[in-house]
């Protein structure tokens, strides 16, 4: 497993816990007020907290609502990199105060957002970023509070590759019946897309194109770089249409596949980056029995 470390010359990614709003404002406001001159000041929080921060922090504060900023982890990573490259980092160091709404997420969502926190150390490495993440010691789940030191710089920090590998050991739920099943080989992509479209619509998905593009991309990678054949299952978990693509002969080596902004010369990375942007959730499990790509697209 590759070791990944932060570029300590630039990136700062730390956290703090609080119990009262006064503690939040003291720590968060102090962090923003101590920012290097000339850089951007950014806050991602609830509307009430943002209003209090505007009063506590002198200068121009760029504010984003938590519910608008955190769509899915891959989309949040993409938005963060876009804002940084196009606006924040041109002015110097970006100082970003962030509070998520952990208590409103189920366990699967919490696991994906904890993965996101670990991935920030990889995606933002080498960028002029100071980020401070706030955790509510009274309301945030115990598992989230225990994981916070492991995904932020300081005592307890865990290498992101190791942390992500732990996230991927969580078992995936068994699909419900009935299932639509299709085996595919080289030359089957057109019929595979038609099969996916028909069954996704039958399960209630109206806007099928993002899912079709994603299934096509994953299947293409299986045919080109995997064992040359795979199996597709289409089903519903009640909240989304789910497509499982299984390559029984391929074992994934990259724990960050599709999360790191792609290099222009590595098309495989760009493909899985696009899949994670198009789908509401992508889960991957890889081992001795091959690799499972599980794609979720939310139902209306």
Furnish the topology, listing elements before pairings.
Elements: E1 12-18, H1 21-33, E2 40-45, H2 47-56, E3 62-65, H3 66-69, H4 73-86, E4 94-99, H5 107-123, E5 129-136, H6 142-147, H7 160-167, E6 180-185, H8 189-202, H9 209-225, E7 229-236, E8 240-247, H10 267-278, E9 281-287, E10 290-298
Parallel strand pairs: 1-5, 2-3, 2-4, 4-5
Antiparallel strand pairs: 6-7, 7-8, 8-10, 9-10
Helix pairs in contact: 4-5, 5-7, 8-9, 9-10
Which stretches of 5+ consecutive residues score pLDDT under 50?
A: 1-8
Q: At the first level of CATH, what is the class of the largest domain?
A: Alpha Beta
Tell me the span between the first and last alpha carbons. Answer: 39 Å
Radius of gyration: 21 Å
Number of domains: 2
Mean pLDDT: 92
**Could you estimate the helical fraction of the residues in percent?**
25-40%
Strand count, sense and barrel status of the largest sheet are: 5 strands, parallel
Examine the coordinates and then state which fold CATH places here, giving the name of the CATH topology of the largest domain: Rossmann fold
- Number of helices in the DSSP assignment: 10
| Classification by helices and strands | alpha/beta
At CATH level 2, the architecture of the largest domain is 3-Layer(aba) Sandwich
In spatial order, strands of the major sheet run: 1-5-4-2-3
Please state the overall shape, judged from the principal axes of the Cα atoms: elongated
Tell me the β content: 15-25%
